[in-house]
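in:
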């Protein structure tokens, strides 16, 4: 198991690959997959947007501070992190809403059977969204075991809608293989990158993905409730449609035309006014990715997760995360009947992970701001805890957000 001395040696003079994050002293933060840590640039930008652009600039800032194109600019920056060219990605709304828009559009031009295929490990919000779309349009939502996904594609499907990384186990679908097979069968693909964007290398265009959505506040560190993003491949843009026809998806919002004319390009997937405060903070948070070699960041992530998994195994825990880096996202999870109490007791000891019902303890590795030392300290705390037992008192009171 990774001990502190070895960890310090492995970190060398770079305990963190980026020093731009503000983290409380003495805390090991293994929850960047729920809410990324705060980059210093975010704080500075928040002050500027509030004090200068809003308080002083007022309505003029739409043009003077270029608020009007911010969603596009941030979208392009996120696109660059997920293998998507300029003009294919836009930052707006939440992941759930973008999923609704993406799948609705995919359904409108899918010419195969009226079936949406997903897997049973998908995130509940995604399953709810898919369920309501299917029932509203008289489609079937077919939910299969994740291991059966590729096989199930051949069984009469119009739209594939899956999340790349399983939020509980960390298991990652092979995007290239699954999308390639879908395309060969005429199935339109929609990928949710909530636990992928910023965490590891994603190549949307190379894989031939049609639509994708993802989250701004996890590995992109955009802050609580940061806008999400939506991607539409350039080959699907001519036929894409937005089920919510708001004024920002109009060809000329400021013509105030009483009839709707869809915008050309990715702007068509917009609905209403951008969330300028949170979008600005997300924009600033993305600066961090410009200061590092992202492939080095992702390599470190894979290495840290491997150490975590080895440590869990050495403690006799039931690891549910794939051992191979290419088969998982940037997290390590184990199953335990007292998972909730373990996570709470670790938080008391300064190690923040999270619990996912019914019995999973999950530890996210955001490699921009974590080092081997953090992993060694987390494992030491866990080892102590499992030895001295006293978990009962931690399992009693559960907060509303877990
Ligand atoms: C985090 C997450 C979401 C969050 O959706 P919001 O609408 O932003 O709250 C959606 N889907 C998946 C797979 C997620 O991991």
């Amino acid at each position: 198991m990774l001990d502190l001395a070895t960890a310090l040696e492995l970190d060398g003079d770079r305990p963190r690959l980026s020093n731009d994050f503000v983290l409380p002293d003495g805390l090991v933060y293994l929850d960047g997959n729920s809410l990324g840590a705060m980059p210093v640039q975010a704080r500075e930008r928040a002050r500027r947007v509030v004090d200068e652009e809003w308080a002083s600039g007022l309505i003029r800032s739409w043009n003077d501070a270029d608020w009007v194109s911010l969603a596009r600019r941030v979208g392009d920056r996120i696109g660059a992190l997920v293998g998507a060219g300029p003009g294919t990605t836009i930052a707006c709304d939440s992941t759930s809403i973008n999923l609704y828009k993406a799948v609705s559009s995919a359904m409108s031009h899918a010419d195969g059977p009226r079936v949406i295929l997903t897997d049973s490990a998908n995130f509940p919000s995604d399953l709810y969204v898919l369920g309501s779309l299917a029932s509203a349009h008289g489609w079937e939502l077919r939910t299969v075991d994740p291991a059966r996904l590729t096989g199930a594609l051949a069984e009469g499907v119009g739209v594939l809608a899956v999340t790349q990384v399983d939020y509980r186990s960390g298991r990652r679908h092979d995007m290239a293989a699954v999308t390639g097979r879908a395309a060969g069968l005429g199935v339109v693909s929609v990928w949710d990158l909530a636990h992928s964007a910023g965490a590891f290398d994603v190549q949307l265009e190379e894989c031939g993905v049609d639509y994708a959505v993802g989250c701004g506040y996890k590995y992109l560190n955009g802050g609580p409730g940061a806008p999400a993003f939506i991607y539409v491949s350039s080959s699907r843009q001519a036929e894409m449609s937005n089920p919510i026809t708001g004024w920002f998806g109009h060809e000329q919002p400021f013509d105030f035309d009483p009839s709707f004319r869809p915008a050309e390009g990715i702007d068509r997937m917009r609905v209403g006014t951008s969330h300028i405060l949170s979008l600005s903070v997300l924009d600033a948070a993305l600066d961090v990715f410009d200061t590092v070699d992202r492939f080095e960041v992702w390599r470190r992530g894979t290495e840290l997760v491997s150490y975590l998994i080895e440590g869990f195994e050495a403690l006799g825990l039931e690891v549910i995360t794939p051992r191979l880096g290419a088969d998982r996202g940037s997290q390590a999870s184990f199953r335990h009947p007292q998972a909730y109490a373990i996570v709470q007791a670790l938080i008391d000891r300064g190690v923040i992970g999270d619990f996912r019902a019914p019995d999973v303890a999950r530890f996210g590795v955001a490699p921009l701001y974590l080092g081997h030392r953090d992993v060694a300290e987390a494992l030491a705390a866990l080892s102590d805890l499992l030895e001295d037992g006293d978990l009962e008192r931690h399992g009693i009171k559960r907060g509303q957000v877990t």
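note: The first helix runs from residue 4 to 11.
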